[in-house]
Design a protein that fits this description.
Length: 217
């Protein structure tokens, strides 16, 4: 709207830019005059605006930038420590998305929760609950967890957890942790079996040499 545009320019000059003295703003304030476009063009030249009078969107953007710079210059101490609302929102969202950042490991509730989870998942306990956590965060454990494995998808609803925490999300997490623990136990059992086979091959009597096709010493 032409009238709103002219009022906007006058407001910027009166309230923020203040390039003209008050007594010299008459022509710019006379928004109903047929000569206003000429007055506005002169004003643009006086404030060194690089755009033409026809480029309104660019002109508005440039004048707003000038107004902000002048506003900041007049109130630098007030605005120097300010943070944009969008940044604050992003920071708060990031903090809320990472609840473990402010976790107090000395909180009795946290200790009780770790022990309760160990009991539910039937994981070997340790007198020091922090040691239980550290054992899961060793370099070997992290490296092993980082290795990508391909396998068949698992339908959690087909696996009975055996207990109910009262929270569906926690129940699902517990199911996943238990399945991972079972997988580790199976790997351990496989290694034990391999070790037994290797020992039996060493102490077997009579010894069998398949390459020679004979049995005996």
């Amino acid at each position: 709207d032409e009238t709103e545009f002219r009022n906007f320019i006058v407001w910027l000059e009166d309230q923020k830019i203040r390039h003209y003295k008050i007594e010299d703003r008459g022509n710019l304030r006379n928004i109903h005059s047929d000569d206003w476009p000429k007055s506005f063009e002169k004003y643009m030249k006086d404030v060194n605006c690089p755009f033409k009078i026809q480029e309104r969107q660019e002109t508005v953007d440039w004048l707003l930038g000038l107004a902000v710079r002048l506003e900041y210059g007049d109130n630098a101490d007030k605005y120097k420590d300010s943070t944009p609302d969008g940044v604050k929102t992003t920071e708060n969202t990031a903090k809320n998305a990472e609840p473990l950042i402010n976790l107090d490991v000395n909180n009795p509730d946290f200790k009780a929760g770790v022990m309760a989870l160990a009991n539910l998942l039937q994981i070997q306990r340790h007198d020091d609950y922090l040691v239980m956590l550290k054992e899961r965060l060793t370099q070997d454990a992290i490296a092993k967890a980082s290795q990508s494995k391909e396998g068949l998808p698992v339908a959690l609803e087909k696996h009975i957890l055996g207990f109910d925490t009262g929270d569906a999300v926690i129940n699902e997490a517990a199911q996943i942790l238990r399945l991972l623990h079972i997988e580790e136990l199976r790997e351990l059992q496989t290694k034990i079996n391999e070790a037994i086979v290797a020992v039996q091959a060493i102490i077997a009597d009579p010894k069998t040499d398949h390459r020679l096709g004979k049995v005996g010493r």
